[in-house]
Amino acid sequence: MFDKVLIANRGEIALRINRACHEMGVNTVAVHSTVDADAMHVRLADESVCIGGASATESYLNIPAIITAAVVTNSDAIHPGYGFLSESAKFASIVEEHGIGFIGPTSEHIALMGDKIASKAKVKELGIPVVPGSEEAINDIETAISVAKSIGYPILVKASAGGGGRGMQIVREQAELESALSRARSEAGAAFGNDAVYIEKFLERPRHIEIQVMGDNKKTVLHFGERDCSLQRRHQKVLEEAGSPALNADERDTIGKTVCDALAELGYQNAGTVEFLYQDGCFYFIEMNTRLQVEHPVTEMVTGLDIVREQLRVAAGAPLGMSQKDINFSGHAIECRINAENPINFIPSPGQVTDYHPPGGLGVRVDSGLYSGYRVQPYYDSLVSKLIVYGSNRNECLMRLRRTLDEYVIGGIDSTIPLHQEIITQPDFINGEYDIHWLEKMVERRSTS
Ligand code: ADP
Q1: Rg (CA), the chain
Q2: How are the residues of the chain apportioned to helix, strand and coil, as percentages rounded to the nearest 5?
Q3: Which residue is catalytic, options 16, 291, 337, 400?
Q4: Is 297 in the pocket of ligand 1 (CB under 6 A)?
Q5: pLDDT of amino acid 166
Q6: Does the predicted TM-score (pTM) go above 0.90?
Q7: Atom 14, ligand 1: which residue's CA is nearest?
Q8: Top-level CATH class of 4-103?
Q9: Is the Cβ atom of 157 under 6 angstroms away from ligand 1?
Q10: Is 291 a catalytic residue?
Q11: CATH, domain range 207-448
């Protein structure tokens, strides 16, 4: 096992990784920007290094500063968390070149899956079902017209380097195609420095269902079941469940096996998530994330497995040490992403937390860096807490979730707790009947009533 791990991240996920390390007897190094010196992830790590200014480009995205921090502290591995450098193949390969362990997949697999056109082609070849669409980048309007005709409107123009739901354009008829294509390309070029776009069939009422996987360096890949992340606003996940209210155990086994067989052939190592749209009983691959996901705790709650612990073990060269039949699913878990935002208009709400009381009790987990007196910074993502609740079935989970949301006090700033309180009282949500567009419609109804 590693002696010392540098955590190249901040906030709740840095704390989460710190916890797993300490439980395994591994020392930790926190890195932080100048404005994060008082953050909880810095206070609870064994050592800390300031790596630069407030803006992420100066600090959490600053590769030379992070590598230097790892070298001077004698860290033997780096965990990138999610966001920031977690899906940078360049960062992973620089870490590897310095003889430091990278707690994640190989840089080759990060690069492959970061290119959505290439990854779709590869997984299709490995037997995973994909959304119908173009197999290559679309460079001219004639090709776009012919692809769109063959799959039928509506279609979606997507960025090959896309992330965070940016650079997507829905096209409902041919007349809109040319302008959507150029809009998508310029948005993708500006956001990702790569203007390659492709076309996919736009699914009208799918759910977003993703499979958590873990691979070791002995070509064993296991799945830890699915998460339903259909509740989204602007293509960003808001609330996630494990398992999906729409899936039965047989469907889970079948898609899980398809994914594991494909990734074992690829030799995939460490944690990953294969994302699908699911409609009318069929799965359609959209992308693979080669990192720990924000929503991983719901999987931990229903499997009893610590995903970060497994990441550390396999990165240190240990075999997974279990087989698929050892992974059992019990009960139900829901995660609410709590953002420092106004719950009505979603305007970010940085500032000082004056009062803080997290909920507790059986089956309740709060992953957060907040404390009373903490100042939420305007420079980073507005996610400040994840409330994760477990119940022996979905109904118990929902009742407990309602109780914990009522109990949670975050004073001094706006938070999206009231949004979650509203979601969980909607009959469609209670019945598990929602798709990826449902939340947007709920928010729209609010603004027109
Ligand atoms: P990103 O990497 O930007 O998050 P994804 O490909 O993962 O992009 O898609 C994000 C979300 O956008 C999905 O969860 C889904 O809500 C929506 N989406 C993506 N592709 C399609 C599609 N073909 N049809 C309908 N919705 C889609």
Answers
A1: 21
A2: 35, 25, 35
A3: 291
A4: no
A5: 81
A6: yes
A7: 208
A8: alpha beta
A9: no
A10: yes
A11: 3.30.470.20
